[in-house]
Structures are given as structure tokens and as C-alpha cells.
TrEMBL record:
This is Protein kinase domain-containing protein. SUPFAM superfamilies: Protein kinase-like (PK-like). Residues 58-374 form the Protein kinase domain. It comes from the Eukaryota. GO terms for molecular function: ATP binding; protein kinase activity. PROSITE patterns: PROTEIN_KINASE_DOM.
Length: 374
């Protein structure tokens, strides 16, 4: 056995978690369909760091569990071309799969506003009528790489606000149009790729060697919306079915109530507006202790031009709030007024717990190609 330095928690990595075992059980079937899981999820797996001559544990790819959302998603490699993909479980008794199929139809895919995540394959599981698998490209969280210019945020906002209007035209309410469901095609931003278990590592193992370029230099960057698990298709968006309770990642929506029904289309607008608001509003940098005042800072400095539209999308009164169509039109008016100089304007991340760049570091970013992740 290799001489392994065990630290707290290392033993846990030697055993598969409950949800990981599901993927091991279907690994041979997925391989027959052209999708290879990492060695950790092969039947009979033995940790490579425990084998004779094995490397240190955190130098081994199979020490990285990447099952996320319980057992719902896992990373894989498409065997015919080596493309990195994500495989996700979808219940067959909800509206998610029919909605995805509709949005992936040739007629709707032809609409340039359609930002539905590409569905590369649908896999029907033998002997399982309750669950299907969808295969998607491996995308990045839209916000984990720093925005460097106003135009980068505007480009993202433009795509998703027009998509929301498009979605509502199909009488579909997403019902979770929130931060972690907006993704980015990072293939040109991170040319060397990334690991699903650690998006700031090319292979999941190497630390401190992450290379990326700012979005402005490779624009346009494509954004996608994922996770239609809660989505509903209505007869008409103008007379929608109303819902009580709270749903989605963002439950700060003012009208959400367990007694008074809410219009899910107006909730979608609020949730998207709040995504942008989180980029530009203050965040608490230090909790108050012993009477010490709060230290606050904007997440990004330089996005105030978006405030009027964002405020209208997050109006606490849903009757006064913009619709998705109105938001899309207002954005188009705003965009026409944005000069190249405005779009090229620098913005700076100032969000806890990420330390802001110093004035010297900002100089290096602007003029010397320095590109840290903060």
C-alpha cells in the first residue's frame, strides 16, 4: 500500500456516498450508450492512491466526488469525441422533459432568443419508467469568473432577459429563474477547460495554475438557462394559474405567500431582476460585533447604469412590476443608448469573502494582461 498522508475526511473519500452508488450501478449501460464516467464510478473501483505506487490522495482524479444535487447530476466524457458532458436525471412524470423537448424543437431553436441549455441526448433507462437521463454540455456558473467590463454584464443580461420574454411567449414560467440556473459557455473563456468538481482547476487536481481570458476579449459569450424542474406551461400567460407558497432558489419575492396566490410569470421577472441586483448592490463584508458598524461594499463597482431597469423588474408590487416582454423592450431601448465607451468601461469586483484588487493589481489587469480570479 502506498504511504498515504491521511487527514480528517480522507477516509470518507475511500468509500462511495449513497448517491454515488446509483451512478456506479448504471455505469456499464452509460458506457454502452457512449458516455464514460470517471474511474471512481466504475464497478469494483479501488482508490488509486491506495494502490501500490499510488500518488498522494489529492493528486488523484478519483478522489474527487462530483455528484451534485443529490444523485441528479454527474460529469462524463462522450466517447466518440472526448467532449465533457453532464448527465442529469429527469423525472418523467413532471413537465420538465416535455418543456425541454418543446424548447429544443427546430422551430423554437431557430429563434435567436432561445437560451435553453442544449440537450445533446435523451437516455431512457431500461426497466425504469419514472426517470430519464438528459445529456448536456458541461457549462460554467455564469458568475464565478469575474466580470471585467460593463459590456460583459450587459451581454449576459441581454441574452437572459430576451430569453425570459421568449419563454413567456410560449406560456412557460420557469419558476426558478435564479442565480445558479444561469450558465455560461466557457469554452473560449477557459480554453484549457475545467473540472466539474473544481471549476478553478483545469484537471481538478492542479491548484494555482488556472488560466482564463476575460469575456470581452472573446465576445460574444453564450449564456444558457438550465433546470426546468419546476417549470409550468400554462394555457395563457395573460391568465395564468396562480401558485401559493414559495419556490426556487430566491424566496425573497415580496408576494410569495402560503395564503395568497402569486403570478409565476411576475415572479420570474423579479427573480431575474434580483440576479442582476445582486451583482450591483451592497453586501455585508463583516458581521456586527460588540456594536461595531457594518462594513458594506458593492459586489461590483460600475454597474449603476442598470439600476433603473433592475428596480422596475424588482418592484415589490407585482402589479407595478414590468412583464418579461416589457423588460425585454426596455432593455433594448437601454442597449441602444450604450456607447462603445460605456460598454468598455471597467468594473471591479468588491465582494466578500473575495479580496478586492489593489490599485496596483488593477493597473496590471488593465495594461499588463494580469488576470487573477478576483
Amino acid at each position: 500500500m502506498a504511504n498515504v498522508e491521511l487527514r480528517p475526511g480522507h477516509k470518507d473519500l475511500e468509500e462511495l456516498g449513497f448517491f454515488e452508488k446509483y451512478w456506479v450501478s448504471i455505469q456499464p449501460f452509460l458506457l454502452s450508450r457512449g458516455y464514460e464516467l470517471r474511474s471512481r464510478y466504475h464497478p469494483g473501483w479501488t482508490p488509486s492512491w491506495l494502490q501500490p505506487g499510488g500518488k498522494r490522495i489529492f493528486s488523484c482524479d478519483d478522489s474527487l466526488p462530483t455528484v451534485s444535487q443529490g444523485s441528479k447530476m454527474i460529469d462524463a466524457t462522450r466517447t466518440n469525441d472526448g467532449a465533457k458532458v453532464v448527465i442529469r436525471q429527469v423525472p418523467t412524470k413532471t413537465d420538465e422533459l416535455p418543456i425541454l423537448l418543446l424548447l429544443s424543437s427546430p422551430s423554437l431553436q431557430a429563434d435567436p432568443r432561445n437560451c435553453t441549455v442544449p440537450i445533446l441526448d435523451i437516455i431512457i433507462l431500461p426497466g425504469n419508467d419514472d426517470t430519464a437521463l438528459i445529456v448536456m454540455p458541461m457549462l460554467r456558473d455564469f458568475g464565478n469568473l469575474t466580470f471585467r467590463r460593463v459590456g460583459e454584464v450587459v451581454e449576459m443580461f441581454e441574452q437572459v432577459v430576451h430569453f425570459l420574454a421568449f419563454l413567456h411567449e410560449q406560456n412557460i414560467s420557469h419558476m426558478d429563474f435564479c442565480w445558479f440556473n444561469i450558465m455560461m459557455d466557457g469554452s473560449r473563456v477557459v480554453p484549457k477547460g475545467w473540472h466539474m468538481a473544481n471549476q478553478f482547476s483545469h484537471d481538478g487536481i492542479s491548484i494555482g495554475e488556472f488560466e482564463w481570458v476575460d469575456r470581452w476579449s472573446v465576445r460574444p459569450v453564450k449564456y444558457y438557462v438550465i433546470d426546468f424542474e419546476l417549470s409550468q406551461r400554462m394555457i395563457s400567460k395573460d391568465n395564468p394559474r396562480l401558485f401559493v407558497g414559495s419556490w426556487g432558489q430566491d424566496r425573497s419575492v415580496p408576494e410569495m405567500s402560503f395564503t395568497t396566490p402569486s403570478d409565476p410569470f411576475k415572479v420570474d421577472v423579479y427573480q431575474l431582476g434580483n440576479v442582476i441586483k445582486k451583482l450591483m448592490t451592497v453586501s455585508v463584508l463583516r458581521e456586527p460585533r460588540f456594536g461595531v458598524s457594518l462594513t458594506r461594499s458593492k459586489n461590483y463597482i460600475g454597474l449603476d447604469i442598470l439600476k433603473p431597469l433592475v428596480d422596475a423588474m424588482t418592484n415589490p408590487d407585482p402589479l407595478e412590476r414590468l412583464t418579461a416582454e416589457e423588460s425585454s423592450k426596455q432593455f433594448s431601448i437601454f442597449r441602444k443608448k450604450c456607447s462603445k465607451r460605456v460598454m468598455k468601461g471597467r468594473i471591479w469586483r468588491n465582494e466578500a469573502p473575495i479580496p478586492p484588487l489593489s490599485s496596483v493589481e488593477r493597473f496590471f489587469v488593465k495594461y499588463l494582461g494580469y488576470n487573477p480570479t478576483n
